[in-house]
Structure prediction request, 497 residues.
Amino acid sequence: MHKNSLVTSSAHRSQARGGHMAGPAVYRRLVGTLSMAVLVTLSGCASLAPQLDPIALPVASDWPIQPNMTGTVAAAELSWREYFTDPALQTLIETALNNNRDLRVAALRTEEARAAFRIQRAQQAPMVGVGAQQIRAGLPDTLQPLVGGSVLEVNVASVGISSWELDLWGRVRSMKTAALEQWLATEQGRRAVELALVAQVADAYLGLRELDERIALARRTVENQQELEQIFQKRFELGHGSRLELTQVRTLLSQGKALQVQLELVREHQRNALALLLGSEPRLPPPTVPMDEALVMPELKPGLPSDLLANRPDILAAEHALRARQANIGAARAAFFPRIALTGAVGSLSTDLSDLFSSGTGVWLFRPTIELPIFDAGMRQANLDVSVVRRDIAIAQYERAIQAAFRDVSDALVARQKLAEALAVAREARAEQAERLKLARTLFDAGSAAHLEVLDAERDLLAVEHQFVQVRRAALSSQVGLYTALGGGPKQSQVLP
Prediction:
């Protein structure tokens, strides 16, 4: 049975049969009443949500370290394609954005929040429905003379609105605002996941490039030591060398093989981690240029801490969540005031189905209701207290998001500056160790030095070269971290209600 259907009575039936309520007049009266209700609603409703006071920035007004950077472009102005120019890395990022399951879940949550907002927005408009029903009821003997039979049969067709709340105190509007802000918060959360995914893929790609270069160093070392082992084995067999020298060469060869196996194991783990981010198996072309030449990223302008409020998606998500909590306070306050709802319908009623839409069968119903609980054991006050506490929690979370962003940028700026210095030192150390090995070999060939000095120089050069690759990768990762911390990444999407 349709909830907008009419409750019939003998009085209604007599009016329908007599034709005292003509169809057009009924429609005009109901439309006029509803139009007046709409005007009252639009002119009188007011939100009871409190104004959100400005929140002081809970961090310093400037960065604790002033970076010596020459960047002139802000991270928020660069999409990931403009910042990461390596074609191989761009392909990996695009694959991850299309296939990553965490990002897919975040996108679906955004769609869920959007649908929830549409549901809440629909509560502001009356819901119009059409209903038709047939009623058959057996009557007692005392009522049979009134209807001329033992069975009452009534056919009803109606169109009308269900219980529609006049939002005089802004309760429905506050709930709609809360749903909208929650949708916007979810959208910013999706952007945060997307930005983090871009950074994770870039960092994983850098890790693979680092391991590839270190594995190449280990293989070259193993090949060189295998050649030396053969040379010293022949020298030992001919009596021109000692077993100590042969043992030293074999020891360095074993260390090189062990390092190569260890690095290959770590690379497989890194490759599997990248595959999880991509949602598919990574296809990496063989590197043709060094890592620092392939991954040239522009220098960024750090700006001021206040710029993070408009750039970081996690801060924007916390801000929208705070505004949603603020709107919930308005809805909780409105619950203390009377709730007025309208129900109305027009239609036709007849005892014969064939005469349902004949002249003189028009009926109407207009039922305003007002509801105000007198005693609720403090439930409404508790609901308001909960809304206020949740708003205060959202304020603390918003401030914490700002502080976390400030720390991320500060750490990234320090890492960018110090790792650039460390990279310069590592480059000098590598050049010095290469010169040392060259001198040791020259002295050994001239018979002025033992081969142990050559082995020590080779071992130290290998360690320095590995350290140089690690520092270079860390320096590049610091650029990725700074780009992420400043809120760069995909362009901010426009969410329209």
Remarks:
- The longest strand covers residues 151-166.
